[in-house]
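Example for tutorial group B:
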C-alpha cells in the first residue's frame, strides 16, 4: 500500500472490494459485500485510507457517506490535497452515485476573508439507465 500504510489483511480486503466496482461505495454497501469483516472494522479501514488521502469521501445527499479512490495519490504528506475534485451525479431512482471525472467543479468567487478547504458538487436526477 502507499502513503506509509501497512497492508493488513482487513485493509487489503477493503481495497480489493473497492477496486472491483466503478462507483463510490457506502459503508453499508461494503458491509454487504465483505462478509468476513464486521462493519466497525470496515469503517476503521475507510477512516485510515481517507486520512491518508487514498480515498475521498462524497456526501451525495443520500444520507450515507460514499467512498472512492483518489485519482492523484502521489503525495505522501499530510498536506496533500486531491487533484481529483470532480462533479458527482446521484441518481434519485437507482440511488447510484456516478463520478463525472471529466467534469471539474466550477470555480466559485468568494468574498474576501473566506477560504475553501473542500468542495462537494453533486447533481441529482436520473441516470441514463433510469431515464429509459
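The residue assignment follows.
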Amino acid at each position: 500500500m502507499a502513503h506509509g500504510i501497512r497492508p493488513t489483511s482487513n485493509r487489503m480486503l477493503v481495497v480489493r472490494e473497492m477496486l472491483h466496482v466503478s462507483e463510490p461505495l457506502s459503508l453499508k454497501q461494503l458491509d454487504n459485500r465483505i462478509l468476513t469483516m464486521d462493519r466497525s472494522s470496515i469503517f476503521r479501514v475507510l477512516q485510515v485510507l481517507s486520512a491518508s488521502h487514498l480515498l475521498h469521501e462524497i456526501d451525495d445527499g443520500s444520507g450515507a457517506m460514499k467512498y472512492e479512490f483518489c485519482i492523484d495519490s502521489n503525495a505522501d504528506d499530510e498536506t496533500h490535497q486531491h487533484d481529483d475534485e470532480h462533479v458527482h451525479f446521484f441518481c434519485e431512482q437507482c440511488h447510484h452515485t456516478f463520478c463525472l471525472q471529466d467534469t471539474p467543479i466550477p470555480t466559485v468567487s468568494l468574498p474576501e476573508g473566506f477560504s475553501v478547504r473542500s468542495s462537494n458538487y453533486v447533481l441529482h436526477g436520473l441516470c441514463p439507465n433510469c431515464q429509459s
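The chain is about 25% helix and 20% strand. Compare this with the pattern of hydrophobic and polar residues in the output above.
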